[in-house]
Amino acid sequence: MINVETEMLRTATTGPHSTFQHPDGGSPVPAPATVRHVLGDHPFAEIGVPSAVAVSAERGIAVLGGDLGRLAWSGAGTAQYGWQPYRVGVYGLDDLSCRAVVESHWPVHSVAVHPTLPLVAVGTGAYDGGYAFEGELLLVDLASGRSRSMMRTPREILRVGWEDERALRLLVARTDDDECDEAHEHAYDVVVERPDWSAAPRGSVQQRELTGPWVACERPVSDQAEVRRTVEELAGDVGWEPRRQVWDVRGLPDGRVLACLEEVLAEAWLPDGGLDWRVPDGEGGRQLVVREHDVWVNADRRRRRRVGREWVAEPPLVARLSLDDGKTLGTLTLDSPVTLTPGRDGWLALRPTPLDRRYGPHPRPVALIPPAAQTPRPTVPLGEFDSSNHAFPVRRSSRLLFLDGAERASWQDKWVVEVDPDGDAPRRLFPLDWQSPARHVFGGTGVEVGPPQSRELVHTGSFYGSGRTLSHSGFVVRRSLTDGAVRWEFSVDRPATAVDGNDETVYVAFNSGELVALDAADGTVRWRHRLRIGGHPTVALSLELTDSGRLLIGTVDGRVLDCSVAS
């Protein structure tokens, strides 16, 4: 195992040691990389966009519930499986440092600090979209930083508040909306009592206790504008703005770092960790393709705005920005969202990713942009795309590579195909599934490795499994680009979010927060660690290994780790 002492550097301040932790949850160990800068660091980063807040001046803490967002966009959705985006964080009022973070299975509606005990009550939940109101009542122990769920049966808790040391007041939704027109506008006003809440065991609040007066209530239950004002006041002169999901990172030859993220089309950071420029955007960039003097940014456009009686989506956007100052040099007029696929000699492909029928019939052709050109040329036909089955971004690719499925059932019989700019049809290389065409294999991320004359493909993916998660179904595999022969395979139980590497080491990030370094030659594990910032877990959403030996890690909480890794 590569074992290098790590010193984390926050922007302008020195932070805690050790950014990595063993995947078994054990004590932090000296990390295999040195974190030079944490770019985009900001208060309350660990919880994402805040949804609830409670301040206790007596204890000197603020408790925030929040949402880190989905790990999916119109061009990639595989990493979403098994992902839990909701968080509760405890922060010190004196220095805004994070003291504890716990996950929540459902959105956080309300938080309340116990008047005397070191406990925080948390109400969570959501409507399942068709029948039930699910959620839980959590108690967070401020001493241990751990939480326990107090109900055995899921039930949405809309609001929590301590009446006194013994009495906890709850606003509880119905179990379902069956034959109840008021289920979405009313809830039960309940008071649950315990002589000592610190001794109340997990699952001890019974369903029979959750009945009371049927009262009117509004959804959403929290005032988002008020929550944001409170968070901004807590941040004070430090300043606060929501940052989430760094979807792509790129290192430039001059030492700067490019990133695109939620609500930011693109931003550039200087080698010393300072911000160079930033281009705000309503939804944000998802992919970066760097050329000699500009960067192409693929933006997501899922949100809709109301125009009269209709909901209208913003038009798809691919923008070309100046590397010097981020100014827009041009945009492409598109009739569908796309994914960007760079290939050999500077070629760029745009594959449509239609979300619904308003973008026209399926399938749609792939448009090609020649090197140094700015507009698409005649197109090449390719089959239907969906974000879970056909996502296949390949870094350092010498070819324009895609996944293509069966003509009438695109999720079946997927092949890795190459689009030749001089050809008129894609060329099949090998099946995505190297064992059985009967298995359902989802796409993933990849990177090409090996010498120019014999390039090979390391790619990730997942196998379809029953239930809501893909348990024990992820993989990383190295294959020949000639016939798809497998050189080695690495199996995992969670989907990958990103991969990059070189001929020596392949780095793979997973939505569990684990970062794994594999020997590129044989797939053996060099090291594997849980990624942490300031002692608290985070998840890598994007990676780039630069030619100068820097590993850039974009996280789900809007930060970029600028690391040095040993060769």
Q: Strands, helices and their partners?
A:
Layout: E1 7-10, E2 13-17, E3 20-21, E4 33-39, E5 49-56, E6 61-67, E7 86-92, E8 98-104, E9 108-113, E10 119-124, E11 126-127, E12 133-134, E13 137-141, E14 147-149, E15 157-162, E16 167-172, E17 186-193, E18 214-216, H1 224-235, E19 246-251, E20 257-269, E21 275-290, E22 294-299, E23 304-307, E24 310-313, E25 317-322, E26 328-332, E27 338-342, E28 348-352, E29 366-369, E30 377-380, E31 394-395, E32 400-404, E33 415-419, E34 427-431, E35 441-442, E36 446-449, E37 456-463, E38 474-480, E39 486-492, E40 496-501, E41 505-510, E42 514-519, E43 525-533, E44 536-537, E45 540-545, E46 550-555, E47 560-565
Radius of gyration: 25 Å
Instruction: Report the end-to-end length measured between terminal Cα atoms.
Output: 12 Å
CATH class of the largest domain: Mainly Beta
Spatial shape: globular
What is the total domain count? Answer: 2
Strand count, sense and barrel status of the largest sheet are: 6 strands, antiparallel
Structural class: mainly beta
Number of DSSP helices? 1
Summarize the amount of helix as a percent range. under 10%
* Architecture per CATH nomenclature, i.e. the level-2 architecture of the largest domain: 7 Propeller
Flag low-confidence runs: 1-19, 357-361
Oligomer: single chain
**CATH homologous superfamily of the largest domain - what is it?**
YVTN repeat-like/Quinoprotein amine dehydrogenase
Q: Enter the CATH topology name of the largest domain.
A: Methylamine Dehydrogenase, Chain H
What proportion of the residues form beta strands (DSSP E)? Answer: over 45%
Mean pLDDT: 89
Number of DSSP strands? Answer: 47
